[in-house]
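Sequence decides. Our protein:
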Amino acid sequence: MLEEYRPEFYREIRAFARKLGAFFYVRMIIDAHARNVWPGRCCVWREDGKLVAFSAVAYLNRDDAWLWGMRVDSRFQNRGIATRFTRALFPLVRKAGRTWAGLNTLDRRGTAPTFRVMDKLGMRLEDVFATDVYWRRPRNLARPRLRPCKDIFRHYVKLGRRTIFRQRMGWFYSRLLPARRACVNAGGFLLDGVPVHLNRNSHVERGRLYRDVVVNLFDRPADFRAFVPRLLALIPKTRGRMAVNYPVEWRREFRAGARTALPRLRQDHGAWFSAWRIYGRHLRRRPGSKQR
């Protein structure tokens, strides 16, 4: 049974979620919603009177919601709890006036059962992307100049893209809707003639300020070995980091291009390589529901 999260539930969540790995992510989600008043809500699931799962919903804009942070106590896994929990979140999303609920899951063999759960929930595969994070900047390359790209939103829609990556507190993908046009176009640039979408933000971690650059690359460069080092040269020099989102079929060429400028690059040493499936489900807005 679904319940609204309350602070007194934290110890129970921590007891099982710490054993599942990446507990910092769950803690960040709780802080974002409960303390920083991030739009959305945190929820828990009870089975036989016991608190056995945690998840949250983030409201990204007037239309889209993002389901994130699902954790199920290992003692209660393989009982369909994640499926029932997720299905119970859809009415909350609909009641809040959102018309789409999305989520992402790692694209690898080990998560194949999750793909089947998505089918059961009526969630459509929207896109499959590689999302790499780099925190080393090429030393011998000057920062390249960017030129504005006119109406990159229209360009991406013509390419057939449905979602775009954004990083703000968490890792989210929102739809390329006409209502997002101005926001998307604000981050549209040309790098060596290639359209790229950039967002810059910063965050404080352990008292230090870090600067992030988030990139969406949907146009295939003519030469990855020439283009990727130029892109990585946009990483801020002081405590900088870049997250690059691009079609998963390019990952070998993209990462080979990164290694031309950063030869010692490998997983967790200067970079974090990943691939994700983005799923979404359209939800009809109930008559009289309010948008938030």
In short: The chain has two domains: 2-98, 128-277. The helical segments are 10-17, 23-35, 81-95, 112-120, 152-158, 181-185, 224-232, 251-261. The chain has a mean pLDDT of 91.
